[in-house]
Amino acid sequence: MDFKRLLSGVLLGLVITPAQATLNVFACEPEWASLVRALVPDADIHTATTAMQDPHYIEARPSLIAAMRRADLAVCTGASLEAGWLPALISRASNQDVQPGKPGLFFAAEQVHLHQPHQHVDRSMGDVHPEGDPHIHLDPQRVPVILNALADRIVDLAPEQTNGIRLRQQQWKVHWHLKTTQWRNAARHLEGMSVGVQHSTFGYLLRWLGIDTAIDLEPKPGLPPSASHLSNVLSDPAIPELALILIATYQDERPAHWLAEKVDLPVEVLPSTVTNDADTDHLAALISHIIGRLEHYRSQRPNESASND
């Protein structure tokens, strides 16, 4: 077949192929917007939160209601992370396609086993999620499971895009596997490192890396660090073992800096979710960035690193 006939056939195929409707997606957090975009690059995605916001506490603004109302699919964490605002948002949007139990509402936490579920939860325990720790998006093992389930859901909603979605799903998995190999190599050097944190935001990744979260600035989950609690932390025997204090960009830096000045530790403030910056604009890049910063502090203690190798 000559080139002109081949080109004509391709062009004819493009002409007779029906146009695919744009998928409208409401993402509760940027990490899920990132996964949707990896599968459906041309989707119209509205993200409810940013790395500068605590996803527990969001106002159901008119713009969010409008975005939810036109969504074909809403992708959220679940496990009560958005319990303070998502139910009201869904109710006010009155979108019959995005309702509990409907295919248009996808909860990432329902696709995987969560760390530390609780049989009994009461207010005395702080902001504890009975289903378990919902901050699953930084876990190298759980994210691929969520991606596969999300791909299945989108295919169900937009079957005309099946071929493209499945191709991009496989490409994503290959890339993630390569990155996971790099992260495992880094974990060999980070294992045994000890850090202070505020909340369990980075917990899944730190646990996967073998890093001990020896100090939590929160007296109870979800409660801001109090002066009395921080004073007690000063005498914690784990303090001398810390390499740094790690907090998320949406958290108040003052408690971490107060403690760091008292015990002569660095404070690292990192995005806990995807941002618009090139080095953290998708989940793999974000995890690589966090690991890179942790490696920087590990390298400041060469004697300890050498003893653990």
UniProtKB/TrEMBL annotation:
SUPFAM superfamilies given in the database record: Helical backbone' metal receptor
Xref: Gene3D superfamilies: Nitrogenase molybdenum iron protein domain (3.40.50.1980)
Keyword Methyltransferase: no
Family matches, as InterPro entries: Bact_metal-bind_prot9, ZnuA-like
Keywords: Signal
First and last residue of the signal peptide: 1-21
Cited Pfam families: ZnuA
Transmembrane region(s): none
Identification of the protein by name: Zinc/manganese transport system substrate-binding protein
